[in-house]
């Protein structure tokens, strides 16, 4: 059976992991958190002192994922989307949260002042949405509100329906 690949992207803290894991458990698709994958495989290329985080080795991440992505049925979660091959994804969701909501979530994570400010700005200027539009066909890029538990439930139901339809359309 052919299965679609889904990209969940957006500013850190918008709810990609929460949605991705729940979606995977309800759809049977596989969930991959690119941040975790990079940590496990040490797929890094230096360290960013300003943001206090390692720099992703994008080429190695792509190589690492290629086989699974060609098989299909993968939900990818990452706060960036311009380095993945465009052909990998059948649909792209950009999650979005209100500033006040996002601020509280990131504060809870203990982000430093600069990281907090930059991430809030990233959300205000819709940086990930713009990046997604620049990297994928506009028709497959969708924004999803991710402020409250009801949003999560709505998003899951909407995506499950989409998956079901995609599978129907691609079965022969
Ligand atoms: P991300 O993976 O985008 O960094 P996350 O899934 O870890 O974000 O979520 C960050 C926090 O926000 C976490 O404590 C769970 C909470 N959260 C996520 N989606 C939510 C929603 N729709 N309603 C309320 N809280 C949510």
UniProtKB/TrEMBL annotation:
<feature type="region of interest" description="NMPbind">
    <location>
        <begin position="33"/>
        <end position="56"/>
    </location>
</feature>
<dbReference type="InterPro" id="IPR020618">
    <property type="entry name" value="Adenyl_kinase_AK6"/>
</dbReference>
<keyword id="KW-0963">Cytoplasm</keyword>
<keyword id="KW-0067">ATP-binding</keyword>
<keyword id="KW-0539">Nucleus</keyword>
<feature type="region of interest" description="LID">
    <location>
        <begin position="108"/>
        <end position="118"/>
    </location>
</feature>
<feature type="binding site">
    <location>
        <position position="148"/>
    </location>
    <ligand>
        <name>ATP</name>
    </ligand>
</feature>
<keyword id="KW-0808">Transferase</keyword>
<dbReference type="GO" id="GO:0006364">
    <property type="term" value="P:rRNA processing"/>
</dbReference>
<dbReference type="GO" id="GO:0005524">
    <property type="term" value="F:ATP binding"/>
</dbReference>
<dbReference type="GO" id="GO:0004017">
    <property type="term" value="F:AMP kinase activity"/>
</dbReference>
<dbReference type="GO" id="GO:0016887">
    <property type="term" value="F:ATP hydrolysis activity"/>
</dbReference>
<feature type="binding site">
    <location>
        <position position="13"/>
    </location>
    <ligand>
        <name>ATP</name>
    </ligand>
</feature>
<protein>
    <recommendedName>
        <fullName>Adenylate kinase isoenzyme 6</fullName>
        <ecNumber>2.7.4.3</ecNumber>
    </recommendedName>
</protein>
<keyword id="KW-0690">Ribosome biogenesis</keyword>
<keyword id="KW-0698">rRNA processing</keyword>
<keyword id="KW-0547">Nucleotide-binding</keyword>
<dbReference type="Pfam" id="PF13238">
    <property type="entry name" value="AAA_18"/>
</dbReference>
<keyword id="KW-0418">Kinase</keyword>
<feature type="binding site">
    <location>
        <position position="17"/>
    </location>
    <ligand>
        <name>ATP</name>
    </ligand>
</feature>
<feature type="binding site">
    <location>
        <position position="18"/>
    </location>
    <ligand>
        <name>ATP</name>
    </ligand>
</feature>
<dbReference type="GO" id="GO:0015030">
    <property type="term" value="C:Cajal body"/>
</dbReference>
<comment type="function">
    <text>Broad-specificity nucleoside monophosphate (NMP) kinase that catalyzes the reversible transfer of the terminal phosphate group between nucleoside triphosphates and monophosphates. Has also ATPase activity. Involved in the late cytoplasmic maturation steps of the 40S ribosomal particles, specifically 18S rRNA maturation. While NMP activity is not required for ribosome maturation, ATPase activity is. Associates transiently with small ribosomal subunit protein uS11. ATP hydrolysis breaks the interaction with uS11.</text>
</comment>
<feature type="binding site">
    <location>
        <position position="109"/>
    </location>
    <ligand>
        <name>ATP</name>
    </ligand>
</feature>
<dbReference type="GO" id="GO:0042274">
    <property type="term" value="P:ribosomal small subunit biogenesis"/>
</dbReference>
<comment type="subunit">
    <text>Monomer and homodimer. Interacts with small ribosomal subunit protein uS11. Not a structural component of 43S pre-ribosomes, but transiently interacts with them by binding to uS11. Interacts with COIL (via C-terminus).</text>
</comment>
<dbReference type="InterPro" id="IPR027417">
    <property type="entry name" value="P-loop_NTPase"/>
</dbReference>
<feature type="binding site">
    <location>
        <position position="15"/>
    </location>
    <ligand>
        <name>ATP</name>
    </ligand>
</feature>
<comment type="similarity">
    <text>Belongs to the adenylate kinase family. AK6 subfamily.</text>
</comment>
<dbReference type="GO" id="GO:0005737">
    <property type="term" value="C:cytoplasm"/>
</dbReference>
<feature type="binding site">
    <location>
        <position position="16"/>
    </location>
    <ligand>
        <name>ATP</name>
    </ligand>
</feature>
């Amino acid at each position: 059976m052919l299965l679609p690949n889904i990209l969940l992207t957006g500013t850190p803290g918008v709810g990609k992991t929460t949605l991705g894991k729940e979606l995977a458990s309800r759809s049977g698709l596989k969930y991959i958190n690119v941040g975790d994958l990079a940590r496990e495989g040490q797929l890094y290329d230096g360290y960013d002192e300003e943001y206090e985080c390692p720099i992703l080795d994008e080429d190695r991440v792509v190589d690492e994922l290629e086989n699974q992505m060609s098989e299909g049925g993968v939900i990818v979660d990452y706060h960036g989307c311009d380095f993945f091959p465009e052909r990998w994804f059948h649909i792209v969701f950009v999650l979005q949260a209100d500033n006040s909501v996002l601020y509280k979530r990131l504060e809870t994570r203990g982000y430093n002042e600069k990281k907090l400010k930059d991430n809030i700005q990233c959300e205000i200027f819709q940086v990930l949405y713009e990046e997604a539009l620049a990297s994928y066909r506009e028709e497959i890029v969708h924004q999803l509100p991710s402020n409250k538990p009801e949003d999560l439930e709505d998003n899951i139901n909407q995506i499950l329906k989409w998956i079901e339809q995609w599978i129907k359309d691609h079965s022969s």
